[in-house]
Amino acid sequence: MAMQNDFKEGAKLLGFSRLRWNDGGDPPADPPADPPADPPADPPADPPKNEALLNLIPEELKSKPWVQENTKSPEDFFKFVDNQNGLVGKKGIVIPREGEDRTDFRKALGVPESPDEYEFPVEEGTDRNTDIDAKVKALLHEAEIPKTAAEKIVSGYENLIKEVNKGNAEKQKAEDEAFAKFNADYFGDKKDEIVANAQKVLRDVVRKEALPALDKMDAEQLSLVIAVTEGVFKKYAGEDPFRGGSPGAAPIGGETMDQLNAEQQELMKNPAFKDWRHPDHKTVMAKNKVILDKMRAIKK
Question: Half-sphere exposure of residue 121, counting CA atoms within 13 Å on the CB side?
Fold first, then answer.
């Protein structure tokens, strides 16, 4: 019996704890089952598509703007590649760096070789100011403006100026009509003669520095000045001499027809006479109106 017990103990030590013994006694109780192993962890989720794409980009390229702009998604990247592939073999315009030759660049843009190659529109019945045109062409050429674009810019700008001048011309016409009506009502049949004489007197007695202001007077202002001049002239020089002499003769303070013709011919040589774009055009036309008024007064 002692030997059997020793055998059992030895068997237990060797791991045979579940053996059944035919010794008449109860078999040993089964040991507790091993606990189930933990289920395997979920596999790691796939990284986002753009992150996976970025992981494939070499480090030295990741900071490039074109990489950052075109790798937000695989779709963006392949669209970029397709677009670049479509440009292969096509000729593009390369912008020169500072100090590099710009001849090919200017030619590709369409900039003419010489400023004289620019062409500006000429309206029927008008002459362009060649001096101003030459300076504008030089500016356009220096700024590397293509020929077609330059001509559109100049034409568009001149049309804007024309619209502005059209409004000014309509305003001037209304003032002239008001002035003519005032003269007819105030001076009667000899209004042209009196107005011409008054304007001549003003030009003779006013300092030359004030003449530009005289030319800028509107109809109402000029009417008042002429009325005052006419009153002063009648008081101190007599009405008959003030209102002129015989046809063809020079009124008091006036000129002969030949003198007026010569004065007008000289005025017409001024570039501003025909060029409505000229800054002195309005002043020159005002002087021409004075001459015409004097001529009408002498012919009466």
Answer: 13
285 residue type, one letter:
M
CA distance to 203, 211, 212, 284, per residue, from 208 (Å): 8, 5, 8, 15
Count up the domains in the chain and report the number: 1
Dump pLDDT digits (tens) for 211-232. 888 777 776 677 777 777 767 7
Inside any domain, residue 219: yes
> Looking at the domain assignment, is residue 71 inside a domain?
no
Measured CA angle at 234 (ends 178, 294), to 5 deg: 50
Q: Is residue 159 part of a domain?
A: no
- The percentage of the chain sitting over the pLDDT mark of 70, rounded to a whole number, equals 69
**CA 103 centroid distance within chain:** 26
Residues 6+ apart with CB under 8 A from 189: none
Describe the crossing of helices 147-187 and 130-142 by its angle, rounded to 10 degrees: 150
Domain that holds residue 281: 175-299
Question: pLDDT tens across 119-173, in order?
Answer: 988 877 778 888 999 999 999 999 999 999 999 999 888 888 888 887 777 887 8
Instruction: List, in order, residues 6 or more apart from 154 with CB less than 8 Å away.
Output: 118, 120, 121, 136, 140
pLDDT value at 92 more than 50: yes
